[in-house]
Amino acid sequence: MGASQSTPQHDEKVFVPDTSLHFSEDVVNQLVDHQASPDTPPDRQLTIDAHIQSRIHAELSRLRQEEERVREEIERALEKENLDRERSMAGEESAAGDAAAAAGSVKSSAALMGDLEELRQKIEKYHARQSSEELSDVRAKGEEVVSCYNSHPTTTLDCWKAVEAFRASVAQVEQRYVNSLR
After folding, report:
1. Model pTM above 0.85
2. Sign of CA dihedral 5, 8, 9, 13
3. 14, 55, 126, 135: least CB-packed within 10 angstroms?
4. Which are the contacts of 170, defined by CB distance < 8 A and separation ≥ 6?
């Protein structure tokens, strides 16, 4: 029952055309050559290669974009997690006791970055002051005092003019520094 329908039928049907078909010798030779060597022609191979390369580049750029998107999501999630952890730590510290100690012990990333930038500016100011002409003048006057003392080892009181010039230059630099803080 039903077995006859599921068995494949192997009946070959042959159609006989009303007109005779004739192929040119070039077509027959091309078919024979193609059948003998299954390699694709060079121009066809170049087209296939170009198509494959374009698909690879498209997929590669899509994967890079996806990777960048995932990386950004991870960075945002980690940043949010760190901020939540900092807030919870700050909350525990302030709940535990001294609010002033809690504010000093746990700072947010933004506050720390602000503090770092402030320190950088102070260091740059310090280096600028160290290299200023005023300090080089003070150093020169100090070297004059030292050379005067070295040249007059027994009569150091003869160096009072060099010492006064050094003191005046130091006082001048100190006054400018105090004025800059105002």
Report:
1. no
2. positive
3. 14
4. 138
Q: Say which DSSP state 22 is in.
A: -
Closest CA to 100 of 87, 109, 90: 90
3-class DSSP assignment, residue 28: helix
72 pLDDT higher than 90: yes
Nearest to 91 by CA among 105, 74, 77, 79: 105
Q: How far apart are CA 131 and CA 145, in angstroms?
A: 21
Exposed, middle or buried, 166 (CB in 10 Å: 0-12/13-18/19+)? buried
Q: Measure the CA–CA gap between 58 and 50, rounded to whole angstroms.
A: 12
CB proximity list for 93: less than 8 A, separation 6 or greater = 101, 102, 105, 106
Give the contacts of 41 (CB within 8 A, at least 6 positions apart). none
The pLDDT value recorded for residue 110 is 75
Over range 108-114, report the average pLDDT: 77
Looking at residue 157, the DSSP 8-state letter turns out to be G
SS3 label, residue 131 = coil
| Spatial distance between the Cα atoms of 169 and 173, rounded to a whole number of angstroms | 6
Question: Using CA atoms, how far apart are residues 123 and 57, in angstroms rounded to an integer?
Answer: 49
